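Fold this: Thy-1 membrane glycoprotein
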Amino acid sequence: MNPTVGIAVMLTVLQVAHCQMIRDLSACLLGQSLRVDCHYENKTSNPLTYEFSITKDSRKHVIHSTISVAENAYRSRANVTMHKNLLHLYLQSFTTTDEGVYTCELKATNDYTGNQIKNITVIKDKLEKCAGFSLLIQNTSWLLLLLLSLPLLQAVDFVSL
């Protein structure tokens, strides 16, 4: 086998083995705060770095990051939590001046495939409230169990008649 082909095959295998993939990016209102959920598929145990940013007026503004430094305008209002392949960005006191294209960027240490990036356009008047919305994203297994048990619940009602 040609050494160049062997190296290319090995790099392809490494890329598949180490990749982080963003599955979904969504936004909702939680009281007066914006919440942006970055749901990703974890294909490695390597440490994960992230960056949330907003692009408005053709300029990128870093909101919260472990990759680069966040801008002062957002640093005091932003918080990020991580839970089971889901990053939550919370931006307090969200107003129409915070509207724009929000970006979630992920990178795993020693990942040769590059950063994973996903965008969402956020307009305050078009955002939904987070209550039921987040339940579906975070607790998919609970929802699936509920849906699968509905026929059983109906059967119990029929038998008791």
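The radius of gyration is 20 Å. The helical segments are 3-18, 72-75, 130-138, 140-160.
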